[in-house]
Write a structure and sequence with these properties.
Blueprint: H1 2-16, H2 22-33, H3 39-46, H4 50-62, E1 82-90, H5 95-106, E2 111-116, E3 123-129, H6 132-142, E4 149-156
Antiparallel strand pairs: 1-3, 1-4, 2-3
């Protein structure tokens, strides 16, 4: 009986996933590079009529495959320009320690991304600030005062020859 219950859950999970065919993947590739493309141009690029293309995009949005559209902002234009990836190790490996750390970095505007990862550390952060002095302040006055940290390791980005983040 347990096998049947587990199988049913697995089958339901498979049924809830959307099947993305080659045209769906083509739509996603185009939108990932140009989210502002008109439906008419998108339809021409993927070989569909405009109405069929619009239905496909709406279904991808409705099913959650397309989660949103955003502008890519030049960080230097908004006072950024210094980028660091920071690994964080926690002193204790509990749900409460993770929740406390996540709450602390959620309020730090310098932290642009926070990922809970596997391996020798718990978190990988992408941090954007104005310059090295601003990073030193962030490292000391923001990260350095969060209780429960065992390690902070910084990786300063010198160049990004490929960056496809939206």
């Amino acid at each position: 009986m347990k096998f049947i219950a587990k199988y049913d859950v697995f089958r339901l999970n498979l049924q809830s996933m959307i099947d993305i065919d080659n045209i769906g993947r083509a739509i996603l590739r185009v939108l990932a590079t140009d989210g502002r493309i008109s439906n008419l141009d998108l339809a021409a690029r993927v070989g569909l009529s405009p109405s069929a293309c619009l239905r496909r995009v709406q279904e991808l949005e409705r099913s959650g495959v397309i989660r949103g559209y955003r502008a890519v902002i030049a960080s230097k234009a908004t006072g950024g320009g210094f980028l660091a990836y920071v690994t964080i190790g926690l002193a204790t490996h509990t749900k409460a320690a993770q929740a406390a750390f996540e709450a602390a970095v959620a309020s730090a505007p310098e932290v642009r991304e926070c990922h809970n990862v596997t391996g020798g550390i718990e978190y990988l952060l992408r941090v954007e600030v104005r310059d090295l002095a601003a990073y030193k302040y962030f490292h000391t006055e923001v990260l350095g005062v969060i209780p429960g940290l065992a390690s902070i390791t910084s990786f300063i980005v010198m160049d990004s020859p490929k960056d496809e983040r939206a």
